[in-house]
Amino acid sequence: MKKGRSGDLSFYARSESFWFVTIISIVAATLVYLPGLHGPFLFDDYANLPSLGDTGPIDNAAAFARYITSGTADPTGRPVSLLTFLVDAHDWPADPYPFKRTNLILHLLNGALLALLLRRLGRILFEGRYRPFHIESAAALGATLWLIHPLFVSTTLYIVQREAMLSATTTLLGLHLWLRTRHLLDVGRVAAAWWTATAIAAVTLIGTLAKANGLLLPLLILTVECCLPNRGTGHVHGRRLLLTCVAVVPSALTGLYLVSQGISNAMHGIPYRDWTLAQRLLTEPRVVWEYLRLLWMPTPFTSGVFNDAWPISTSPWAPWTTLPAIAGLAALGTTAWWLRRSRPALAMGILFFFAGHALESTTVPLELYFEHRNYLPAMLLFWPIALWLTRPAPAPGVPARWRFALAAVIVVALGAMTFANASLWGNGSSQALVWARLNPESPRAQVLAAQTEVERHRPDLAIARLTPLLTRYPHQAQISLNLLSAQCATGAVPATTLDAANISLRESVDTGSLLSSWFFRAIDAAKAGACTGLTLEALDNLARAGAENPRLAVGRVQDLLHVRGQIALAGGNVERASGYFIQATLKEPNPALALTQAAALGSAGFPKEGRAQLAYYASHKSNQGYAGFRMPTLHAWVLRRQGYWEREIARLDATLRSDIMAGSPRTAQ
User: What is the pTM assigned to this prediction?
Assistant: First the structure.
């Protein structure tokens, strides 16, 4: 029988072994993640997923067009990610379980794609030097270490982070396509190579429409290519031309974008952040070292989604670890570059990690720290140790059987930690309390724990938790308002807490997106007389303090003016309510807000005033829409094309007119 890949039976036996190990790893990952599938929605889930029902169930083409263009994250709106959420639900509210299940399936798919990628890279780098079984076992182990690492629980089980997972999927597909392109050039199939290169451009676009990280695919291809040998091809010039088209030029454009972002942020400042661009750039090296620590010294429980307590570097010497962190990263990157020929797998893992952080850890003014940012960059990081652990030949002082045993211990330990972390993600109440313990300096973590304690009918614990926190962070509205809720659960709100809440709302940099929902719950409590001290007048004073805060964005001020209108309406003062609604409209004419205001007036028994509110909006609305090439611009065009708002306003107006004709009991008032 002819030897070689097409006829050597041992090759197929090794491939079967590779697939067996990979499938076992996928099954094991499924088992350790299962407890986390029963967890609740969290934070940004509520900011993104309700668009599934914003304009009704998505059960026709018009509703689909409105939904798929409704995204506001990134200029693209991330429509590919929105599309995948339709796999799990077509309306809102929805059950979190299907969303988490799909996330897990995507994570397992990424693990399989990674195993195949490492096998292909191993064959290019080591075929002829290492035995095929070593290459394939290292690929399977390297993917397994990534697949069951506990740090990625917060990506896989945080539903909205499907966006990061999808961009990783497209990146893996793009890397496979590039390796296929190299092979086609090696065997002289130049035309086919150009077709696969075109496919890489399409995959880059799809990844970018899932999340902006998809833009990094060309840079990651360039990173991998710089560590691969040039031998075995008669089309070196063709490869260079293709590499220039699919990797060098797009990477340069991405670099120019990051530079322009840096210049803009340095010149104009960064609104709604308590740090400058310079401070961010000084802080990120320390953040990256923390990522590396968590990747190489994992723990079952981490800080999770909380990052608001991360200490900011105000200079290269404050804190003192800033300059060593910068120097350490520079030394690590330089070393990896010099080792790219002698230790290509090690160099590739390090350089790939750095390149994967180019977008989210540099000049784009995102929050300083998030665990999910390591999901893609860390994919090649465990491959070098997998190569060492699976090497059958004796290593100095470490017999092969000991290394195999160590590999098994590492896999079991990672699986156990991931199981523990996933179990925590499956229990929202316990999760909040553990996160508060792990993040003692995080106001967000402490507030979430306090909310959990109130839900467990222990407002005393919530008060004890939040009172000293408010002293340390007097400008944090989320603390003062949740302290009010906890005290209200005991039956009375002290005047001192109301005063503190007024101060925090008046001076807060950002009150948070859930501010309106807090006020609406508080309005119901005030109307019912649920707690002494929390009156409609007290709530109006709080809303006024926030509306007068010059640091808040126009949208937040508009929300607070709308809240003041709802408070006045709850007190029966329709003239005052209409006045605040008009002020909110003048801030930024918004058809959705106008509908909400008119419906509120009608529901309160004032249909005539509700129609007047719709008429006022109609006389002040702007047809200009959004400027620039962004998804909100397209969304506004879709709504205009469908006549959506006109139809909804006409429908409500007809209802209000019918109420007037029927003789609403308060119309005359």
Answer: 0.91
